[in-house]
Structure formats: C-alpha cells, structure tokens
C-alpha cells in the first residue's frame, strides 16, 4: 500500500484518474508462493496475539500527534500496519 500511495494523484474527485494518459499500469505481480524458496525475501512479521501488538493498535486508535485534535477512539483496519522486518541471516 505504501508503494501504491506514492503514485501521482489524478485530477478527478478524490484523486481519481480521469484521462487514460494519467493511468499508471501495474506491469507485473509476483506472488511469494510462486517464487522458489531460496529467492523469497526472509521476513519477520510481528505476532498479532501479543501485548506489544495490542499496544500498537491502541496507539493508532488514540493518536496524540499534533494533527489529531480529538482522539477517535476507534480505528480502521487499514490504519494498523503490521510491523515487518528483514530476518537476520542464520
């Protein structure tokens, strides 16, 4: 999602593309399941059944940044990115 959000916005409402020349095609997609295991990126994903993850969710639910004047008290699923990092070599 982070990579898609860097695409230029269109001129239509909510940034939608109105003209074909504004379209930015996705040229390829590669699924990890279709990639040989030796070529797959080695990643560690934070477990979602931990107190640490619960704290992360709570911090996103009631953000205290200057931009937020009143804590929302709720959260949208897309606003809780699950932390991922490259796994250290064995």
List keywords for this structure.
90 residues; little secondary structure; two-stranded antiparallel sheet; 1 helix; 7% strand; flat
Structure description:
The chain is mostly loops. It has one helix at residues 51-61; strands spanning 43-45, 84-86. It has a two-stranded antiparallel sheet. The longest helix has 11 residues, at 51-61. The two termini are 30 Å apart. The model has no long low-confidence stretch (mean pLDDT 85).
Largest sheet: 2 strands, antiparallel
**Total beta-strand segments:** 2
Q: From N to C, what is the helix and strand string? A: EHE
Q: How much helix, percentage-wise, in residues?
A: 10-25%
Number of helices: 1
* Rounded mean pLDDT score: 85
Which spans have pLDDT < 50 for at least 5 consecutive residues? none
Gist of the model:
The chain is low in regular secondary structure. It contains 1 helix and 2 strands.
Question: What's the layout of helices and strands?
Answer:
Blueprint: E1 43-45, H1 51-61, E2 84-86
Antiparallel strand pairs: 1-2
């Amino acid at each position: 999602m982070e990579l898609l959000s860097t695409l230029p916005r269109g001129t239509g409402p909510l940034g939608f593309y109105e003209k074909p020349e504004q379209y930015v095609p996705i040229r390829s997609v590669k699924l990890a399941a279709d990639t040989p295991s030796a070529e797959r990126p080695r990643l560690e994903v934070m477990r979602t059944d931990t107190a640490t993850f619960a704290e992360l969710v709570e911090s996103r639910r009631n953000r205290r940044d200057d931009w937020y004047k009143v804590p929302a008290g709720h959260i949208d699923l897309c606003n809780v990115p699950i932390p991922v990092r490259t796994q250290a070599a064995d």
